[in-house]
Write a structure and sequence with these properties.
Elements (H helix, E strand, L loop, with lengths): L13 E14 L6 E7 L7 E5 L3 E8 L10 E2 L18 E8 L4 E6 L6 H7 L3 E7 L16 E10 L15 H12 L6 E4 L12 E4 L3 E8 L6 E3 L4 E5 L9 E4 L8 E8 L4 E7 L2 H7 L2 E7 L21 H6 L1
Parallel strand pairs: 1-4, 3-8, 9-12, 11-18
Antiparallel strand pairs: 1-2, 4-6, 5-7, 7-8, 9-10, 12-16, 13-17, 14-15, 14-16, 17-18
The structure holds copper (II) ion.
The site of copper (II) ion has 6 residues, from loops.
Length: 328
């Protein structure tokens, strides 16, 4: 995440970004299952780019000559020409520059849009990310009160469709021309084999947990370029949630699970009140537990007995008193 102001007093600026398309094998689970990934800047998801409403995003898209395929980019936050995709079709060995005005505040998906079946193939191979267009006056609740965040985490969710071998195990692929026809067949059945955060099962769990402290307010941006998701913090809430991700709509309060429409990004603001490990998951629990859509927040701080206290730890059920048994 690049450094950025939450509120800006300056006038609109041109903000330059550079994205390089990197086609490379990506390991997507702990078994070493590998797909011929296609990425912005080598990561799944691509980077979160933060600007303010009224700014101009000036993007250089580079497709190195070592790549095999044409790529482009559709910014959901931009207006016209397929979100810029029609003006940015870069073949291997080419680059192009696009400038668009950020006229709408919110978090928005961007993704590759090469056309035909290559569009979903590129997206499920990793080519998506998000843009955050902050209001110049920062985030506000419905009364106009400023909402500050201490940390920001961007969680990009991806669905993958990996064929299995005769032994029932996932096959690994490094060659896209071998992978694409097989993954396309699976994609058409709409049943993903992996649903992951940050490109890999376990990328944000255990020792990779996202750190936070009691009292800190965390802004969680969640994007899914292809498929619906239902983020939920086990043991926590969304204090303020922009479910559709667009900051000029008042945020909803006290949300248990919020809905991310496929092809959109949402934002949730939460102040942690208790220490411990919190699961942050897609509350379609099969996808969280079986397919990988799970992250952890590791929160340090002081436990608050008023909010929760173990009154009696688990112990054997006491025998029923004789006098009471008789009266029954
Ligand atoms: Cu692409």
């Amino acid at each position: 995440m690049h450094a950025h102001e939450q509120v800006t007093k300056s006038g609109p600026k041109i903000i330059e970004f550079k994205l390089t398309v990197v086609e490379k094998p990506i390991v997507i689970d702990d078994d070493g299952t590998t797909i011929p990934g296609m990425t912005f800047n080598g990561s799944i998801p691509g980077p979160l780019m933060v600007v303010h409403e009224g700014d101009y995003v000036e993007l250089t898209l580079v497709n190195p000559a070592t790549n095999m395929m044409m790529h482009n980019i559709d910014f959901h936050s931009a207006t016209g020409a397929l979100g810029g995709a029609a003006l940015m079709e870069v073949n291997p060995g080419e680059q192009a520059v696009l400038r668009w005005k950020a006229t709408r505040a919110g978090v928005f998906v961007y993704h590759c849009l090469p056309g035909g079946p290559m569009t979903p193939l590129d997206v499920v191979s990793g080519m998506s990310g998000a843009v955050m267009v902050l209001p110049r006056e920062g985030l506000r609740d419905k009364t106009g009160k400023f909402l500050h965040y201490d940390r920001i985490y961007y969680i990009g969710e991806n669905d993958f469709y990996v064929p299995r071998g005769d032994d029932g195990k996932f096959r690994s692929f490094t060659d896209a021309s071998d992978f694409f026809p097989k993954t396309l067949e699976l994609m058409r059945k709409l049943v993903p084999t992996h649903v992951v955060f940050e490109g890999k099962v376990g990328a944000l769990t255990g020792k990779n947990a996202l750190p936070a402290k009691v009292g800190e307010t965390v802004l969680i941006i969640h994007s899914q370029a292809n498929r619906d998701s239902r983020p939920h913090i086990v043991g926590g809430h969304g204090d303020y949630v922009w479910e559709t991700g667009k900051f000029h709509n008042p945020p909803e309060k006290d949300i248990e699970t919020w809905f991310i429409r496929g092809g959109s990004a949402g934002a949730a603001l939460y102040t942690f009140r208790q220490p411990g490990v919190y699961a942050y998951l897609n509350h379609m629990l099969v996808e969280a537990v079986e397919l990988g859509a799970l992250a952890h927040f590791k929160v340090e701080g002081q436990w608050n007995d008023d909010l929760m206290k173990q009154v009696s730890p688990p112990r054997p059920i006491p025998p029923v008193a004789v006098s009471q048994a008789k009266s029954d």
